[in-house]
Amino acid sequence: MRNTVLGMASLIVAAGVAATPAQADVGIGLVGGITGGTAALAPEMMKSYQFAVKQVNDQGGIKNGEKLIGVVADDGCNAQTGVDAVTKVVNVSQVVGMAGPWCSGVVLAVANSVTIPAGVVLITPAGTSPQITALKDNDLVFRTVPSDEYQGQVLARTLLARGTTKVALSFINNDYGKGLADAFQKEFVAKGGTVAARAAHEENRASYRTDLAQLAKGGADTLVLIDYGDSSGLTVLRESIENDFFKTYVGGEGMKTTATIKTIGSKNLANFYVSSPVSEKSQSLEVFASGFKSAGGDPNATFVSTSYDAVFLLALAIEQTGGDKTKISAALRNLVDAAGESIMPGEWAKAKALIAAGKPISYKGASGTLAFDANGDVPGAYALFKVNGDDFQFVTDMK
Amino acid sequence: MNFVTLLNYPIYLLIFISIYGCLTIALNVQWGYAGLFNAGVAGFFAVGAYTSAILTSPAAVGRIGGFSLPVPVGMLGAMLACVVAAWPVGKVCLRFRSDYLAIVSIGVAEAIRLVVRSEEWLTNGSRGIIDIPRPFGDLPYAQSQVAFLGLSCLILLVVYFLVERQLRSPWGRMMRAIRDNETAAQAMGKDVPRRRLEAFILGSALMGLAGALYVHLTRVITPDAIDPMIVTFLVWIMVILGGSGNNRGVLVGALIIWVIWSASELVTDQLPADIALKAKYARMFLVGLLLQVILRLRPEGLLPERVGTAGGSGDLGRTSPEAIAPSEGSDDV
After folding, report:
1. Which residue ranges does UniProt annotate as crossing the membrane (chain B) (predicted)?
2. CA of A262 vs chain B CAs: smallest distance (Å)
3. How confident is the model over A180-237, as pLDDT tens digits?
4. Which end of chain B has a smaller Cβ tally under 10 Å, C or N?
5. Contact status of B310 with chain A (Cβ, < 8 Å)
6. What are the residues facing A72 on neighbouring strands?
7. A6-38 pLDDT tens trace
8. Pick from B19, B222, B9, B151: nearest CA to A118
9. Does residue A20 belong to the interface with chain B, where contact is any CB pair within 8 Å?
10. How far is residue A104's CA from residue A129's CA, in Å, rounded to a whole number?
C-alpha cells in the first residue's frame, strides 16, 4: 500500500512538471464543459478558443515571440469537477488568466474557491446568471456574454415602445425561464405596463391547455412566452394558437428555432415575435465568421464569438502587461479605448505593434463592443425578429 | 515554474480526499457495518450542504436566510438536518431488505434534488447560494488552503476515531451480527429495525457533515454540485475498492479514486491535443473499469474487513464475497 501511495505521489509530481509550460511561454486556461450538460456546445466553442490562440501564435505570439499556450480543461458543467479542473490549471499549469468555465454554477464555485483567492482573471463566454454580477471578485471575474437580466429588461422596454401595455407571462420553470421572466416583469411594471396573469410551467408535459385558459382569463391579448421552441415552448405556442387564447405572441431567444416554424407553419405565425441576442452586425463579426469558417469552424454555432473574444481579449491584456497576472484585470478595461485605433478579430500583428509603440487600441469584438462595466459585465445587443417564410426576419433593434 | 504554487495542487487534492473520506466512512457505517444499501448519498450530502449554507450565509433577497451564524453551528445544523431527513426514510423502509432501501434512497435523493432546484424561497433554485463564509477565508490563497486542509483533516480524524470506537464497542458487533444473520440476531433478542435506524441516521449525519465541509470550501452551492454521478457513485466505488467494513480501507479507496479521478487528466493532457480532448470522456470509463477489475479479482476490497479480535484474525481476517452482498440467503423480502 505504501508503494502505491508513493507511486501515485511521484506520478502527480511528474505529470505536474510535464504539464507546466516551458519558462518563456505564457499559459492561459481554456476551460469549458467538454463533458456534461454543455457537451453539445463544446466542439465548436473549443475550436473557437483554439482558433484565437492559433491566430495569436501565427502572428508573432506574445512579446518577443513567446508562444501562447492554451491549457484545455474540462469542467464537466459540474461544480466539483470544475473546481478540480481549474485548481490544476491555476496551480499546476500556472496560467496567468483563463477563458471559461461555461456553466454559471461552475463559474461561481471556481471563482470563489480558486481563481479569486489565487488572483487569476477569469472571463466566461457563456455564464449568464445574474449571480455572477453580484460576486465579490476583486475585479477578477469578467464575461463576454450578457447577463440574463438585460434581455428581460430590453424586451419589456421594446414591447412598451411598440404600444403593448398589458401582457400575460408564461415561462418554463428553470433558472433561465424564471430569471428572464422576473427581469421582464420588473421592468415592464416599473415602466407602466401591466402583467395581467403569470404562470410557470413544467417542461415536457403533454398539454398546457388548462394553464393557457387560466392565463387568458387575465384579459391580455399578448402572451410573453419564455421557453424552448423545440420542447414545451412549442406545445404551449401550438395549443394557444389552435384555441385562439391570445392574438400576439412574443418569445425569448429560446423560442427562436426553426422547429416552431416547421411544426406550426409560417402562415399561422404572423403575430409571433422573438427577441434574441445578436452579435451586433459589424464588420468584426464578418471578419471573424469568414476566418473561423476557413479554419473549419461553424460561425453560427452558439457562443463561438463570445468564446473567441474571451481568448483574444485575454491575449491582448497579457501582451499589454507582459504577462503580469496582477495587472491583467486593469488592462482588460483599457482594450476598448474610444481614442484608440480599431483592432478587428485576427489583427494580432497590428495590435502587437500598437501596444509596443504604447498607443491606445480599441478592440472591436466579434460579439459586439466589449466595454466591461464595474461588475465585469457587458450590456449586449438584442433584436426583435418575426417569421417570414422558413426563417426569422429582423424587425427592429431592441434598446 | 513556481514549485510553491505547484504544492497547492496536492493540498487541494488532500482537502477533497478528506471530504470524500468523511463520506466513505459515513457510507461504511451504513453499508459496511449495517448492510444498508443507501444509493442516495448525494441527497444527504445536499441536505447538509444547503443547511449549513442557509445557516451561515448573510441575508439575500428572495430566500430565507440572513442568519450569519458561525461555521461550527452550520456544521452541527447540517448534521441535525440530516438526522431529521433520515429518520422518516429509515422508519419507513428499513424494515425491508437492501433492494427496497436502495430504491427508496434513490427516490429520496431525487426528491431532494428537485426541492433544491425548485423551492426558491429556501435554496434560491438553480441560481444557488453565494457568499457563504469560509474558515480562514481571509488568508492568502496558499495559507488559506493549508488551514482548511488542517480543519478538514481534524474533522476527518475525529469522525474516524469516534466511528471506530463505536464499531469496536458491543454496538458494532451487534450491527455486524444483524448484517450477517438477521434472523439469528433477532432470535437473540436484538431490536433489528431500531438498530438499523441508528446506523442509518449516524451515517446520514456524517454525510451531512461532509456536505457542510464542501460548502464552506467552495463558498457557493448550486444544484449541479450535488450531481449523483459524482457524489453517490464515486463514493460507492471508493467504499467497494477500499474494502467495505474497514474504515482504513475506505479511506484508502477515497485516496486512490480521487487521485485517479483528478490526476489522470494531467497524464492524458500530455497526449496530442485531439486525443487529450477525447480522453476527458474516458475518465468515468476508467473508474468503472477499475471497479470491474476489483470486483472480479479482489471482491473484498484492498483492505478487507477484519473480523474478530486483534489476536484471533487468522482465516477470518478475510471475509467471503458475501460481505460485499451481505446475507442474500436470509432475505425476508
Report:
1. 6-29, 36-55, 67-87, 146-163, 199-219, 225-243, 250-268
2. 32
3. 898 899 999 999 999 999 998 887 788 999 999 999 998 899 999 998 887 888 999 9
4. C
5. no
6. A30
7. 666 665 555 555 555 455 789 999 999 988 878
8. B9
9. yes
10. 6
Tens digit of each residue's pLDDT (9 = 90 or more) over B106-162: 999 999 998 998 888 999 887 889 899 999 988 999 999 999 999 999 999 999 999
Q: Which residues contact A14 (CB under 8 A, 6 or more apart)?
A: none
pLDDT of amino acid B323: 45
Q: Taking Cα atoms as reference points, which of A388, A359, A325 lies closest to residue A118?
A: A325
Q: Tell me the C-alpha distance between A375 and A362, whole Å.
A: 20
Q: Is A31 strand, coil or helix?
A: strand
In chain A, the largest separation of any two C-alpha atoms, in whole Å, equals 75
Supply the pLDDT for residue B156.
97
Asked if residue A101 has a cis previous peptide bond (ω within 30° of 0), the answer is yes
Contact B244, B7 (CB under 8 A): no
Instruction: Find the helix or strand (DSSP H, E) in which A386 lies.
Output: strand A382-388
What's the mean pLDDT in A370-383?
87
**Sheet with A222-226, edge to edge strand ranges:** A194-201, A166-172, A222-226, A248-251, A272-277, A382-388, A391-398
Give me the interface pTM, i.e. the ipTM. 0.86
- A5 at interface of B, judged by CB pairs closer than 8 A: yes
Please identify among residues 177-236 of chain A the ones whose CB lies closer than 8 Å to any CB of chain B: 178-179
Burial A214-243 (b: 16+ CB within 10 A, else e): ebbebebebbbbbbbbeebbbbbbebbbee
Check CB contact of A266 with chain B, cutoff 8 Å. no
Mutate to test the interface with B, among A3, A11, A84 (most CBs of B within 10 A): A84
How many other β-carbons are positioned within 10 Å of the β-carbon of residue B181? 16
Q: Please answer whether residues B43 and B108 qualify as being in contact, where contact means their C-beta atoms are separated by less than 8 angstroms.
A: yes
Q: Using a CB-CB distance cutoff of 8 angstroms, which residues of chain B are in contact with residue A50?
A: 273
d(CA A36, CA A73): 13
User: What's at B175, amino acid-wise?
Assistant: M
Residue whose entry in the numeric block shows the C-alpha cell 414591447: A159
C-alpha span between B83 and B206 (Å, rounded):
9
Specify whether the CB–CB gap between B73 and B56 falls below 8 A: yes
Which residue has 466512512 as its cell numbers? B25
CA-wise closest residue to B230 among B5, B1, B20: B20
CA angle, corner B66, sides to B65 and B67, nearest 5?
Answer: 90
